[in-house]
Design brief:
The structure holds three protein chains of three kinds. Helix content of chain A is 51%, strand content 8%. In chain A, helix 15 links the parallel strand 3 and strand 4. Chain A is globular and about 75 Å long. Chain C has one domain. Chain C starts with 7 loop residues before the first helix and ends with a helix. The chains are: A alpha/beta, B mainly alpha, C mainly alpha. At the A-B interface, helix 2, helix 7 and helix 15 of A face helix 2, helix 4, helix 5, helix 8 and helix 11 of B.
Chain lengths: 426, 220, 151
């Protein structure tokens, strides 16, 4: 057995806990999970059945943690997991799964398949079977601080740009601020107006906040690839900065997996609870709304729908807040058929969009979202994840559908009452 | 061995062995799961893990609308044979007598003609389920030897029981009963080694699922 | 009368006061000002349509499609190595897309969004060169708008 395969199998073993064992014990091979997975429904290819993506992990469980499986292994009656098999499974585990968790919602025996995929990636990565694009992103995240290579000067330039537009400064490294905002590289590079939008909202609502120059990256590549040590390192940078600035709360921006990483996995990765709270930007905005601190005027008249980013909604628990916010600024808000925690994935999260090899499959899977949209004919889609946004745009463009994709935060900012940007005197 | 001796054996020692293997096997399998444990969640909870877990144990019994629409046959046939099997096993008068013998409690039975009809419906449902498993792209892809074996040991008690009750003339009545009891013992002995364990472990799986989601404030 | 615009409040108010066609025309001028930052020649073609007051509905729709496609092609994919000099082109394409987007589809207004994205193209440039050019493109845009209103 090669050293890397051994590392992989050991990682699999370590990852198997009581839930995993209960899940594998209970699977009756009914195939209902396939019908919940957009990679299956849009390709009709049974190999994308969610539980099938876990087959190597299942066999390790069987051979290590069931009495009869251990005996079978002893007598040479079981089929060992091989390197070739892991090679075959790489595309199943990384290209055809975003860990969206829809399968976990429908399995009749209650299996949380997405939970297991996350664990399986640990073994795949340890065995050297992660997609090269993800490996590159993770390396950049560790050495540069951002998976896309965004360095502090670039962020500072974007901040200066925003300040010029806003006419007031954006707080950086302010100690004892209430909130420390994280940003995803996707936002800094592709949607930097998010920074101005947040700044405007926070000024309007009188929120005490800051950005840390030492830890501004929200994206956690370690989670995507499945290397917990790296994921922990990335979380620790944020924790160190948050504790140094003694902020009360850290804000996770409009990015799905970033929220999962910092809010739910973070303390478990670093082995201790945080000394601060973590909120998704939508949670904070909804709180401000509920407290009457967000005064908006006018509404979007076009027919709008909301796309739930899976890691924020179904896997993250922020479901009602975006709807409250939508109702604040949308005159004509229509839900997708199958919405909320049962909404369909955009097909690009969990490392799939970083993986060029998965492009064709991802675009095919987008058909699922297209069918949802075809049923309600919106004029535009609103969402709260930069990755979802750009890939919804990609999918829409691919299928000749003509509608913009908007950020919920930016839309709120556009409707704030005192929208004068205190005039930047040029 | 005479018929009577055989009958005494299957109702006596064989049943004891089968029960032992079944109980021991189930306990060991459940123990193996629990022993793995799970790490304490250090993230700040939004909702109750326990409430979520218990909720999902029950709520997962009802499929969501999308699943019901996409997999109607699977869901309906599945429910028919599960409920049918359950009713026949626990509410047929002769079975209740066996339970009374072992557990010391009894309960009202369902009239025999009804049980009879339920048995037929259940057998038909199981046959349909097998055909579906062989025909449906995903199920055929996923299915292994064990899935077909389990199907067989599940339908055998129903078929042999029906034959025994109706004293179908293919064998002496006593032998029919012997075969029926043997088929039940086969099911019991195979149980802990197969996916039949889901009968017990699904409560654990649903609970874990619901508790993971409930912790985050999601109803799964 | 010479229109004087000296800050973003006046700038935005003036833009909001324009009818859809004029918003598109002035937006096209904002993008023209930064076109050099975009290597993709599709944008030049798209801008010709955007800047044409006689352009038909079909031509505009076609141009919008092309602009959107170009925007996606130029964006930095999540997790890949970002290149700010390529992002210049991305923001120019976004500006062109905004210019061609019908009013009502964008909460912030097409001309304003086009102006913002054009400024971001310049910001990307400044990240590459290291110069501090914050606010400079905005000033140029005030002049462009003033000239447009006076013409």
């Amino acid at each position: 057995m090669s050293a890397s395969l051994e590392r992989g199998l050991n990682a699999f073993k370590e990852q198997i806990d009581a839930p995993v064992a209960a899940f594998f014990s209970s699977c009756v091979r009914c195939g209902l999970c396939a019908e919940a997975c957009l990679f299956y429904t849009e390709t009709d290819s049974p190999k994308y059945t969610p539980i099938h993506k876990l087959e190597p992990l299942r066999r390790v469980w069987q051979q290590e943690y069931t009495f009869w499986g251990r005996y079978a292994k002893l007598f040479g009656l079981s089929k060992p997991v091989t390197d070739e098999e892991l090679t075959d499974w790489e595309t199943l585990v990384y290209d055809s799964c975003t860990m969206c968790g829809r399968c976990s919602m429908v399995c009749p025996v209650g299996n949380d398949i997405a939970y297991m995929i996350r664990k399986m990636r640990e073994g795949m990565a340890a065995a050297g079977h992660a997609p090269p694009d993800l490996i590159g992103a993770t390396q950049r995240a560790v050495t540069i601080g951002s998976p896309m290579g965004v360095k502090l000067p670039a962020l500072q330039a974007q901040i200066r740009h925003a300040e010029a537009e806003l006419g007031f400064s954006i707080p950086v490294d302010v100690e004892s601020a209430d909130y420390m905002l994280l940003l995803s590289s996707m936002e800094i590079m592709n949607f930097p107006e998010f920074i101005s939008a947040i700044a405007r909202i926070f000024k309007h609502a009188n929120v005490s906040w800051t950005i840390s120059s030492e830890a501004f990256e929200a994206t956690n590549s370690g989670i995507q690839i499945g290397v917990s040590e790296i994921a922990a390192e990335l979380v620790n940078r944020i924790v160190t900065a948050a504790e140094k600035l003694r902020v009360k709360s850290v804000i996770s921006p409009e990015c799905g997996h970033a929220y999962m990483a910092i809010r739910w996995e973070g303390p478990n990765l670093i082995g201790r609870p945080y000394t601060f709270k973590v909120v998704h930007i939508l949670e904070l905005l909804d709180d401000l709304r509920a407290q009457g601190r967000l005064k908006t005027t006018g509404k979007e008249m076009q027919r709008l729908t909301y796309h739930d980013p899976c890691q924020v909604s179904r896997r993250g628990g922020v479901v009602q807040q975006p709807r409250n916010l939508m109702n604040m600024v949308a005159e004509n808000f229509v839900e997708m058929p199958e919405t909320g925690t049962m909404n369909w994935c955009c097909g690009a999260g969990g490392g799939v969009s970083s993986n060029e090899r998965a492009d064709d499959l991802r675009l095919k899977a987008f058909n699922r979202k297209k069918k949802q949209l075809d049923a309600i004919h919106p004029d535009a889609i609103v969402s709260a994840c930069s990755n979802c946004r750009i890939h919804l745009e990609d999918g829409l463009e691919e299928y000749g559908m003509d509608m913009p994709v908007l950020s919920l935060t930016e839309t709120i900012a556009e409707h704030l009452v005192d929208n004068e940007r205190s005039g930047s005197e040029e | 061995m005479s018929e009577t001796e055989l009958l005494l054996w299957v109702r006596g020692p064989a049943l004891q062995i089968a029960t032992l293997v079944f109980l021991l096997g189930v306990v060991v399998r459940i123990g193996e799961i629990l022993m793995l444990g799970r790490k304490k969640n250090l993230a700040e909870a939004r909702g109750s893990a326990v409430a979520g877990g218990l909720r999902t144990v029950l709520s997962r019994m009802i499929p969501d609308r999308g699943t019901l629409r996409r997999s109607t046959f699977n869901v309906v046939a599945g429910y028919v044979f599960h409920i049918g099997f359950f009713l026949v096993l626990f509410f047929f008068a002769p079975h209740i007598l066996v339970f009374q013998d072992v557990l010391g409690v009894s309960w009202p039975s369902i009239p025999t003609p009804v049980i009879d009809a339920i048995t037929v419906v259940t057998i038909i449902a199981l046959l349909a389920v097998l055909v579906h498993r062989l025909q449906h792209k995903v199920m055929r892809f996923l299915s292994r030897f064990q899935d077909y074996l389990v199907w067989l040991v599940t339908i055998l008690p129903l078929v042999t029981g029906y034959l025994a009750f109706h004293r179908v003339g293919i064998a002496p009545p006593t032998m029919l009963i012997v075969v029926h009891i043997l088929s039940v013992e086969l099911l019991m002995v195979i149980f802990p080694f197969t996916k039949l364990m889901h009968a017990f472990t699904l409560f654990m799986a649903r609970y874990y699922n619901g508790s993971i989601a409930g912790y985050k404030g999601v109803n799964s | 009368m010479i229109t004087r615009i000296s800050n973003d409040t006046e700038f935005r108010a003036a833009l909001d006061g324009l009818d859809p066609v004029r918003q598109r025309l002035v937006a096209a001028r904002f993008v023209e000002n930064v076109i050099a930052l975009c290597a993709d020649e599709r944008i030049a073609r798209v801008l010709r349509v955007a800047g044409n007051s006689e352009a038909s509905e079909d031509e505009l729709a076609e141009a919008l499609k092309t602009a959107r496609a170009t925007t996606f092609d130029c964006h930095t994919r999540c997790g890949s190595e970002g290149d700010w000099s390529e992002q210049e082109g991305y923001f120019v394409a976004r500006a062109a897309t905004a210019a061609l987007t019908p009013i009502g589809q964008m909460p912030s207004g097409p001309a304003w969004q086009a102006a913002l994205s054009s400024r971001m193209a310049q910001t990307s440039r400044s990240i590459v060169t290291g110069d501090d050019t914050a606010g400079q493109e905005g000033t140029k845009q005030y002049r462009i708008l003033s000239e447009f209103l006076d013409s």
